[in-house]
Write a structure and sequence with these properties.
The complex is a heterodimer.
Chain A lengths: L2 H7 E4 L4 E2 L19 H7 L1 E8 L2 E7 L3 H13 L3 E12 L5 H9 L3 E2 L8 H7 L12 E8 L1 E2 L11 H4 E2 L2 E3 L4 E2 L5 H4 L6 E2 L5 E4 L5 E11 L10 E14 L5 H9 L6 E5 L5 E5 L21 E16 L5 H29 L1
Chain B lengths: L11 E4 L7 E7 L3 H12 L4 E7 L7 E8 L5 H29 L3 E3 L10
Antiparallel strand pairs in B: 1-2, 2-4, 3-4
Classes of the chains: A alpha+beta, B alpha+beta.
Protein name (chain A): DNA-directed RNA polymerases I and III subunit RPAC1
GO biological process, one term (chain A): transcription elongation by RNA polymerase I
InterPro entries (chain A): DNA-dir_RNA_pol_30-40kDasu_CS, DNA-dir_RNA_pol_insert, DNA-dir_RNA_pol_RpoA/D/Rpb3, RBP11-like, RNAP_Rpo3/Rpb3/RPAC1, RNAPI/III_AC40, RNApol_insert_sf, Rpo3/RPB3_RNA_Pol_subunit
Chain lengths: ~350, ~120
Amino acid sequence: MTDLELLKNRVVLESDRVYSVSSMDVPGTYPGVDDTWDIERFKKTFKVVISELTKGNIEFDLIGIDASIANAFRRILIAEVPSMAIEDVFILNNTSIMHDEVLAHRLGLIPIKADPNDFSFRWETAQKNGNTQGPTDADTIVFKLQVKCTNKKGAPKDDSLEPSELYDNSSVYSGQMIWSPQGRQEEFFKNSPPRPVYDDILITKLRPNQEIDLELHCVKGIGKDHAKFSPVATASYRLLPDIIITKPILGKDAEKFQKCFPEGVVEVFVNKDGEKEARVVNPRKDTVSRECLRHAEFKDKVKLTRVRDHFIFNVESVGAIPPQRLLPDAVKVLIEKCKVLKRSLAQINQAN
Amino acid sequence: MNIDGNENEAKLKILSSSSDEGCATFSISEEDHTLANALRYMIMKNPKVEYCGYSIPHPTEAKVNIRVQTSEETTAVEAMNKGLDDLIELCEHILVEYNEKLDLKNYKYDEGVFDTENKA
């Protein structure tokens, strides 16, 4: 790799600094290189690799895009992909020791398993119905939470026992929320009734004769407004590490070099001269600790870099939206933003 | 139209004082780095554009200003429109490519983490 290619395609890490961090693909940056946007060229160079999918997590690589685009997706995942959360709590009775507002806040943070695509934002329905405020079956899910703590029948009078053995309903869990279908919801959601993602989230504790009687209204919202609406627990990316050995690392040094990296990154093999030599097998596993640069013997033999346009995304869903659907949702949000802007631009042009 | 249903304020305004169509500042309300930086990149990819940059004038005001200056071959409005078109095109291709790879099911799948049923 020439020095120019290195600057264009890699972020370079040295022991005390990182350089070549900015994108270098604006037309005119390099003589003889055509960096003009071309969708056909993009179709050839852009790649997606999905490497891992679990029920709560997805890891995928987006290869061949700029940081500004990748970062837009990351930011949208966190702050602008909608999901459902409890917004209004109507407290009919609360004799527990937890204050109304604390209780309401705790309830708001419970992830709700309901597809946000099945609902409208409240401002959307308000617009459609001519600004008549008030919840409708298109924008609100209602849950009831009615729990009263009582003494357990036949429980021994023994203070050393756990409260759960002495009382019924001494702990209130998210699983005790009961969905109360509104309007056409019962018919529409009969196959997948809305419910909390987890049934074992502790909401509050009660003692005999204390009770809570609440009505909970869930609405559609985005993370920008409140973190409870964020559909992701984490959404992050890192650049693929690339370790370039510029001069052969031989003998005892090879083993020492191997130990500078996490397991599986570098291996020691016997080269054709019968000597031990180090080579890179899986840079993806590297944490880029830069340990090898602390040793004088490796300083001029290795270049630690990251591939500028290779983004390894790790996205963990909160549970309402399956992880594989999160990126498409984010991309659609960005497309929608552009379309809204295009419409405004056209309106301005017409006016002039 | 924005998240609060506020229709009174325009989404986009063009702040330009000169009669030169080659330069303009686009002021977009209710947007931030997410859109502005991506859009800035796409507009810069156009060789007819001489300069494109963006700023958020004040952190508590949900507004970005995108400045575009072009050569005489095009106008700032055209460059903005092309930038938006290119960004949409890029996004649509990412969707196609991602869904294609997802359908191949060529990945490590692990039941782990959630015991709740995901009915996609």
